[in-house]
Specification:
Elements lengths: L14 H15 L4 E4 L6 H12 L5 E7 L6 H9 L2 E3 L5 E4 L4 E7 L13 H12 L1 E3 L8 E4 L2 E7 L1
Parallel strand pairs: 1-8, 2-5, 4-7, 5-8
Antiparallel strand pairs: 3-4, 6-7
Helix pairs in contact: 1-2, 3-4
Length: about 160
């Protein structure tokens, strides 16, 4: 007789992964930001993407993934996020397309290169949004402040 083998696709979730996923989903659903820390190869990205696709429908949520590297600049990060935004109400109010709520998954947050002041400009852009609710328009000569609403950030670093 011939023995046939099949490979299993997917993974078995452990208790910690299930608990972290539930806490992550609860926080994001309530507009809170989440930061996942762990060593390289521990599945932060895979678990996060899986949880987002299972628990946050495209009908209600806009998903955006921003993968950081040592070459990522603040302007690139801002343009990527703004590419999924639309004007809402006033000239300076912006939010996710289609009136949805947004979740921005920022992967490898520890990767952007430090500048001469030892800061990481793409992370400073995200910090500015968290502190002030937006950032300045880099494309206009007026440099108006853009209010970005209805988004939550999910970050992973290790």
């Amino acid at each position: 007789t011939e023995i046939q083998t099949r490979s299993l696709v997917g993974s078995v979730r452990c208790v910690q992964e299930t608990g972290i996923g539930q806490i992550q989903n609860l926080l994001l659903a309530n507009g809170k930001h989440v930061l996942l820390l762990g060593a390289t190869g521990t599945g932060k990205t895979a678990c996060s993407v899986s949880e987002l696709s299972k628990n946050f429908s495209n009908a209600q949520y806009m998903h955006l993934t921003l993968c950081m590297s040592s070459q990522t600049t603040a302007n690139q990060a801002q343009r990527i996020i703004e590419s999924k935004m639309e004007k809402r109400g006033r000239k300076t109010q912006f939010g996710p397309l289609g009136g949805k709520r947004g979740i921005v998954f920022v992967d490898d947050m520890n990767m952007p290169a430090k500048d001469q002041f030892e800061s990481q400009p793409p992370l400073e852009l995200l910090r500015q949004w968290m502190d002030y609710g937006g950032w300045y328009d880099i494309d206009s000569t007026e440099k108006r402040f853009k209010n970005i609403e209805d988004i939550a950030f999910l970050g992973a670093m290790g």
